[in-house]
Write a structure and sequence with these properties.
Chains A, B: Keywords: Lyase. Chains A, B: Its EC number is 4.2.1.-. Chains A, B: GO terms for molecular function: lyase activity. Chains A, B: This is Putative hydro-lyase RSO01_47320. The structure is a homodimer. Chain A is α+β, with helices and mostly antiparallel strands. Chain A has 2 domains: 103 residues, 3-Layer(aba) Sandwich (PSTPO5379-like), CATH 3.40.1640; 110 residues, PSTPO5379-like fold, CATH 3.30.2040.10. In chain A, 22% of the residues lie in helices and 25% in strands. Chain A has 7 helices and 11 strands. In chain A, the strands form 2 sheets. In chain A, strands 1, 2, 3, 4, 5, 10 and 11 form a 7-stranded antiparallel β-sheet that branches. Chain A is globular, with a radius of gyration of 18 Å. At the A-B interface, helix 5 and strand 8 of A face helix 5 and strand 8 of B.
Chain lengths: 266, 266
């Protein structure tokens, strides 16, 4: 069993090879530092056009980094040797909106009509926030980021619709301003916050009770800062209840060959 | 008497000529739209090195746009024909920290040892905020921007020291995020906010009682957003009480040949 997450100098390709070899079955946070990790959604091709359009219409929660041809398990724009069936340490298989099983690879469940979508995730901008000397509270607390369903409706496309989910990180005001500046540079991984302070304005009744993930303390001298979250597309797909669907297991992401620094627009 | 503030197509040079001709004696907000306006501080040369250093150490409240040679009334970096003795509609003359008189030009009080300093002002970024569809509350209320002394100490230089003064504009959270992005592009005119929400954290006891300017309403769904303010150097100079000093009268600024768009770093 491969239990080492962070290996100095490891590339995205190295990390995928470790996963593909079958030894590594842990969350990917900390693997291949500097490389972009992504959320996965796999849908039958009859949903593909609408889902692509949904992502285009809602780029902050659904920043599309890559998309496969129907039936093709490759995503060469994200990694030359990438095989989406084997390169993620844990997958979830859904039927009609219900979680059927968690699997280590997709070889037994793969179908020729499946289209893979990879969406940017907040790991990329969190790395840059840390590089800027900011504290990421849920990392300090060693828990999952707190996430909340909001009253902000996504722009619908075909059957896909639903509220935006946001993640929350507390910062002192001057650090919140810096966090806006830093994350603005990364539009393909959720970009700038969508809201800060005043959680009630976006339909969050109790900041201590996230809908997903874990609560973290928000101190008196801090503001909660909210970013559009990659859980949004999963929540939206769950609402549509497609007959078949695959996602990554939360925290078990796709490690790509892209560098976080390459995603910075400035 | 020249009573028209805003003339379509007027340049900075046109505006200064109107002022120099003696007819225009009103606040300059709205003159020569698109052109940079600046704060003025004139000091005897024995203070010049320390004041320059103070500005360099405190670039957010004191963004230095231009500086003259001792005794020279020209500032060619801000306007080829610029004459600092005549090109501002109203000046204040100070002795030992006390306001002695307001004058329309400096011809009678000019001295060969005077050094002029022009500092960026918030008019430049307010224009860009409006271009981005944001409402500037004090403009809607037709009053002066509210300004507050904070508990943030400037970095001292020679005799110059004192607290940072900030200006406040209220915005809804999403607009506050946009305002951070927009003003970040303008570091030479105060740049990004220094604080938002939680006025008590920077020593502001009552947002309804500004130390300078006028109070404006902050609604329940808004956050007060605070920028470093060009009143800071005036407040600092007042503390030092130099034997002689000249400033512009509040709101009666220097109109330059620089375009606001030229100040954007991105």
């Amino acid at each position: 069993m491969d239990t080492i997450t962070s290996i100095k100098g490891e590339t995205g390709r190295d990390a995928r090879r470790r996963i593909r070899a079958g030894g590594f079955r842990k969350p990917t946070a900390g693997m291949a530092p500097g490389y972009v990790q992504g959320n996965l959604a796999i849908l039958p091709k009859e949903f593909a056009a609408d889902f692509t359009r949904f992502c285009m219409l809602n780029p902050k929660p659904c920043p599309l980094l890559g998309q496969s041809e129907p039936g093709d398990w490759r995503l060469p724009m994200l990694g030359e040797d990438l095989d989406i069936r084997t390169d993620i340490p844990r997958y979830r298989v859904w039927k009609k909106g219900e979680l059927i099983e968690e699997v280590d690879d997709l070889k037994k469940v793969w179908r020729d009509d499946l289209v893979s979508f990879v969406l940017g995730c907040s790991f990329s901008f969190e790395e840059t926030l840390i590089d800027n000397g900011l504290e990421i509270r849920h990392q300090s607390c060693d828990v999952n980021v707190p996430m909340y369903r909001t009253n902000i409706e996504c722009t619908p496309a075909g059957p896909f619709h639903g509220p935006m989910v946001v993640s929350m990180r507390p910062f002192k005001p001057a650090d919140a301003i810096r966090a806006v500046q830093v994350t603005t540079r990364f539009p393909s991984v959720h970009g700038a916050p969508v809201h800060l302070g005043k959680p009630e304005m976006i339909g969050i009744k109790d900041i201590a009770k996230p809908d997903y993930g874990d609560a973290v303390p928000v101190r008196d001298d801090e503001l909660p800062v909210f970013w559009a979250c990659g859980v949004t597309p999963q929540s939206v797909v769950a609402t549509v209840k497609p007959e078949f669907c695959i996602t990554h297991a939360p925290g078990y992401m796709l490690v790509t060959d892209l560098l976080n620094s390459q995603l910075a627009v400035l």
